[in-house]
Design goal:
With 94 residues, the protein is an all-alpha fold. It has one domain (1-94). It is built from one helix and no strands. The longest helix has 92 residues, at 2-93.
């Protein structure tokens, strides 16, 4: 019994420090694993969002091209109409 108390008094503080170190190490390891899973999940979400944004930008580009073409056709039609109106006005003056 006396030897047991001697061992505890001699190595007790060291054992407590080692125990705390191991507990802290294991605890941090679990947190690290959880954080890595969260990071993987976040990266997957970011990747999906990036893909969605990329698709939206491609659709916007096509829409802008269509709008530009429509405006170009409208401008040509207006120029044609202006020429016809100018021609009619000129004929009426004569």
């Amino acid at each position: 019994m006396e030897e047991m108390l001697n061992l505890i008094s001699t190595y007790g503080v060291s054992a407590i420090i080692v125990g705390l170190f191991l507990w802290d190490y294991i605890s941090n390891k679990k947190k690290l694993a959880e954080n890595q899973e969260m990071i993987k999940s976040t990266l997957k979400t970011v990747e999906e969002t990036t893909t969605t944004i990329s698709n939206c930008l491609a659709e916007m580009q096509q829409t802008n091209l269509n709008t530009a073409k429509s405006l170009e056709l409208l401008q040509k039609q207006m120029e044609s109409t202006d020429k016809k109106v100018d021609k009619l006005l000129e004929e009426r003056r004569n």
